[in-house]
Amino acid sequence: NWTGNRVTCRDWFQLSLKEGLTVFRDQEFGADMHSRAVTRIREVRSLRAMQFPEDAGPMAHPVRPDSYIEINNFYTSTVYDKGAEVVRMVQTLIGKEAFRRGMDLYFARHDGQAVTCDDFVAAMADASGADLTQFKRWYDQAGTPHLWASGSYDRAARSYALTLSQSLPAAAAAASQPFHVPVAVGLNGPHGEDMPLLIAGEGSAAGSGRTTRILSLTESEQQFVFEDLAAPPVVSLLRDFSAPVILDFSWSDEELTHLLAHDSDPFNRWEAGQRLASRLILAAADELSLGRPSYWPQTFVEATARLLEHADDDPAFTAEALTLPGEATLAEEMAMVDPGALHDARNGLRRFVAEQLGSALLQCYESRAASGPYQANAAAAGQRALRNVCLGYLGELGSSDSRGLAMRQFESADNMTDQFAALATLAQDDCEERERALASFYQRWQGEALVVDKWLSVQAASRLP
Q1: How far apart are CA 423 and CA 136, in angstroms?
Q2: Cut 0.85: pTM above it
Q3: What is the pLDDT of residue 465?
Q4: CA distance linking residue 454 with residue 451, whole number of Å
């Protein structure tokens, strides 16, 4: 009502004024009601799957288009989802308190009016004192920026120099100018600690012990120097996915493992795990394609074990972080796709984790057994998600114990989430319990067409013929 009707758009070109803002508000409500980390991960996953390809294709257009043939073409992921990211970047740049003041000023000025994206940005600038003139290019320039980053540590000066540069794909870059990109940065110390961030030339009071800083990248290339660092850091870039860009930074396997184990930013911890798992699986797939055995580093298992140790902090996030990238996502990174090798490599990593962490996975699974009837709330959903991810890993062992575990869950489940997770685990194992569970599930749900679809899908997705 407030961001769509009481203050609405002056013309169709301003559609993201209300739709992007309302999507952002919906996202924030979801984050308040559920796991904020998981909500953000799913938002970014959707943005990358839907909006990034739109920005890279022939239908690329700015958040605020300047022309149209058919107005229905305006209802796009760019206008809605990238529009929400633009609003989020405003909040990141000026801070949550100033953003709240800006929203209050926006409503006070424009209640009952039809206005423009410029009016929204003006309210934010007036409430915060920030200069958002260059930032408005996010509304008018199409394409997903590429963010290139590199860093080096000077041991003698005890400083870390971070160089950032931005560019647009060639098709969009002809008349474009640099964006104002908020880059949230942290530095992780050798023991996993967040290091205080003091930028050269600021003075000690400016840093005030902050461990995440928002760097404003406003030029094609800029360098930021962090001082008073006793040891080489591992850089955590674009925390909480602070801008809708494609990031290019050459982390080593060891650095990604370190971030997976220790980063205090949940999004980047998940992102490090996804990057590392993708790298390991793709390398293993190449080896398998050549008839050679795959290799899995113990350090990946150790970082995964740390996730399990801290599972109580946010079970839903832990479930998300334990989930490996899907085969479709991985295939996009392969020049020549070998589906069989990719499938075997991904399953091989799952099995390796299960073999190495079987006791920890079992303990995590058993400690999250429901103590009462099914509850439809965020906390219970997070516990179910983590428990079922652990069950899936244990199912990779193919042991009588893991089959019994899955079968007991299948038979005792009082909700579809738990029953279907148990069925999906059993469906991967050539055993008598698999046939019993499939027959029982169909017998119970044969009158529900959508549930029968799930029954068919779990068999189609099984690795068994």
Answers
A1: 50
A2: yes
A3: 77
A4: 5
